[in-house]
User: Which sequence fits this backbone?
């Protein structure tokens, strides 16, 4: 029978050890030290029985805060399916992808067959001193595999079991992010009248559900410090998506307004989301939220009189005449080079931004500060961005 083993972070094994007979192991390397990384949860132990994006991003959240996160992957499929989700230019022989690395930083990894009684026993042993379990099984699979909350609660009553589903605890419907984007109105609103519904380029429903689960787990942890009791916390992609409709939901619920595809435009504010080309053939987007900002923008563009035009004198008028306004603004903005204009906007508190591609984004110093690196067993350096970007400042009382 194969056994599971966690390696010391300083050890490494050949890639073939993952599929060989005998001990199943995976090399873990100590991450580069970052002065901003927290150790608030360094005594916490998390077992991650999740794959793809939503569940693993919750695991990385705890890893970034100093928790020990043990990721359990399916050895029958050679691990998390996202190991194989590679771009065309990624190394074909690598046992991981950039996608996989995006949410699996600083985790200890083991491979197990959760239908095997011996492997189950090892997971149970690991859970005896664990604080949190993260799972995203198909409906009923957790019970079938004996990896459900009730099973772990019998082993450790104070365990907090967090699980993510697609359409809720009782639905057996297979859920992928694009399906949820479609079902919850995001795709219908996204895009333009010409393009039709458009998917967002990030699996945002997964990430929204992950945030919901993180929050629920943190509340359960807080309650446990008071009561000593564990809990099951669940979040679905569907509920997380609906909860994030915000003003678009209220526009419908209160004004019976069905949001239509508007591209980058905002239904309630103008000019907000309008894009313009500058003299150097670069693009900017405006986000004018009030009349004061509109006046300031007109001054920067050298046309103060525009803010007094009755068609644009207030936000309600600008929303009604946004197409005409965009036509008036376009030649004014084209008189400036992008960086020069944005500099003037910043100085005058006019909200606007450069439309950057991914290379331009990561040329920004602040973006560089958010990059995490990890040395892999094949000596490649995995890179991802921090998922934990809040700052906590503690002051000692004098």
Assistant:
């Amino acid at each position: 029978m194969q056994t599971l083993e966690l390696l010391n972070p300083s050890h490494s094994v050949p890639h073939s050890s993952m599929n060989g007979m005998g001990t199943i192991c995976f090399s873990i390397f100590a991450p580069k030290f970052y002065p901003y990384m927290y150790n608030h949860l360094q005594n916490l132990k998390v077992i991650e029985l999740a794959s793809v994006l939503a569940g693993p991003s919750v695991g990385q959240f705890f890893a970034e805060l100093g928790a020990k996160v043990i990721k359990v992957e399916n050895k029958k499929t050679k691990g998390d399916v996202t190991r194989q989700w590679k771009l065309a230019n990624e190394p074909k022989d690598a046992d991981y992808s950039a996608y996989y690395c995006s949410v699996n930083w600083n985790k200890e990894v083991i491979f197990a067959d959760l239908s095997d009684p011996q492997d189950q026993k090892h997971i149970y042993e690991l859970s005896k001193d664990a604080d949190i379990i993260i799972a995203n099984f198909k409906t009923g699979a957790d019970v079938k595999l004996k990896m459900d909350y009730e099973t772990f609660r019998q082993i450790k009553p104070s365990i907090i079991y967090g699980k993510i589903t697609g359409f809720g605890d009782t639905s057996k419907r297979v859920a992928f992010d694009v399906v949820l984007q479609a079902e919850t109105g995001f795709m219908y609103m996204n895009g333009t009248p010409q393009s039709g519904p458009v998917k967002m380029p990030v699996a945002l429903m997964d990430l929204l559900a992950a945030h919901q689960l993180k929050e629920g787990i943190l509340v359960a942890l807080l309650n446990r410090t008071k009561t000593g009791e564990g809990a099951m916390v669940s979040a679905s992609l569907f509920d997380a998506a609906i909860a994030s409709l915000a003003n678009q939901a209220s526009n419908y619920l209160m004004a019976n307004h069905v949001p239509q595809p508007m591209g980058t435009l905002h239904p309630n504010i103008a000019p907000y989301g309008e894009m313009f080309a500058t003299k150097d053939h670069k693009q900017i987007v405006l986000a004018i939220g009030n009349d004061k900002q509109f006046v300031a923008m007109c001054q920067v563009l050298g046309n103060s009189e525009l803010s007094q035009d009755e068609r644009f004198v207030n936000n309600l008028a600008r929303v009604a005449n946004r197409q005409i306004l965009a036509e008036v603004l376009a030649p004014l903005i084209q008189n400036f080079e992008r960086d020069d204009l944005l500099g003037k906007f910043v100085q005058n508190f006019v909200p606007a931004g450069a439309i950057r591609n991914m290379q331009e984004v990561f040329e920004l110093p602040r973006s560089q500060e958010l990059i995490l690196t990890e040395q892999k067993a094949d000596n490649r350096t995995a890179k991802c961005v921090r998922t934990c970007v809040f700052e906590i400042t503690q002051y000692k009382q004098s």
Observations:
- The first strand starts at residue 3 and ends at 4.
- The two ends are 60 Å apart (CA to CA).
- The mean pLDDT is 90.
